[in-house]
Amino acid sequence: MSGGAAEGIVEVAPGRSIAWTAVGDGPALLLVNGYAATGADWDPAFLGLLAARFRVITPDNVGLGRSTLAAGEEVGGAAGMTADSIALLDALGIERTAVAGWSMGGFVAQSLAREAPARVTALALIATHPGGADTVDAAPGIFRQLIDHSGTPREQATRLLSLLFPPDRAAEVDERFGDLVAAARAVLPEPVLFMQEEAIVEWHDRPSPLAVLDPSIPTAIIHGGNDTVVPPANADALARFHPGASLTILPDCAHAPMAQEPAAAAEAIIAVGGG
Predict the structure, then answer these.
(1) Chain-centre distance for alpha carbon 260
(2) pLDDT single digits (tens) 139-177
(3) Within the chain, which residues score under 50 in pLDDT?
(4) Residue 253 sits in which domain range?
(5) Which of 15, 123, 210, 233 has the greatest number of C-beta atoms within 10 Å?
(6) Cross-strand partners of 59
(7) Is this structure's pTM higher than 0.90?
(8) Residue 1 domain-assigned?
(9) At 122, which helix (H) or strand (E)?
């Protein structure tokens, strides 16, 4: 699949569909977003830098955006979202791809690289963690703040942005983009958010450690040095499962390094992805 911008919807199971967009030209890059985010929510500068080197596919995780989830069905945790990703690649005729995931999307990226390593040419893990006992936990109360559904969508947007950006940037970003974030937040289906929250807890609490990834898959680990949601020590924890991975720690960034320093984040992905 190559060429200009494109979009579509793939039915991966009865009542379960994954909407996708694609931009750019070059080798494929599957870009998986995190909790409460859709494929339309990527920072435009970050996406543009990647699209200059890759054919970037940005799906909406099941149940959000234009993706659908039948009534009574479950997201299915990281395993369900990984199966959705593989089904999407099959439908698009993509045999091999680089895979990048942010936060919860990083759980999907890790799972995909282990379940279908022959299909992954490179891996990028942005502000995520390995789960299980190797996870370095956030301070008490941070996760509750992240998943707090109380207040108006505008109040929720301010809370979210205060976690994604460091204090000296959060107020500015909130003033400029808070209304847009609030509008996006207002249309998110709450039952799907609850299921994503269960997926996050399930990944965190899973009993068995990850297998060490085949070192032939080049891996970039990208983290903000001021991340309070997924503390930066998780970058070192991930590196233990990814021999030879490159570590990019952006010291002034919080949980959204690709939005705060898009050039540095994109450069780390391009370096391993061959774009």
Answers:
(1) 15
(2) 999 999 999 999 999 999 999 999 999 999 999 999 999
(3) none
(4) 6-273
(5) 123
(6) 20
(7) yes
(8) no
(9) strand 120-126
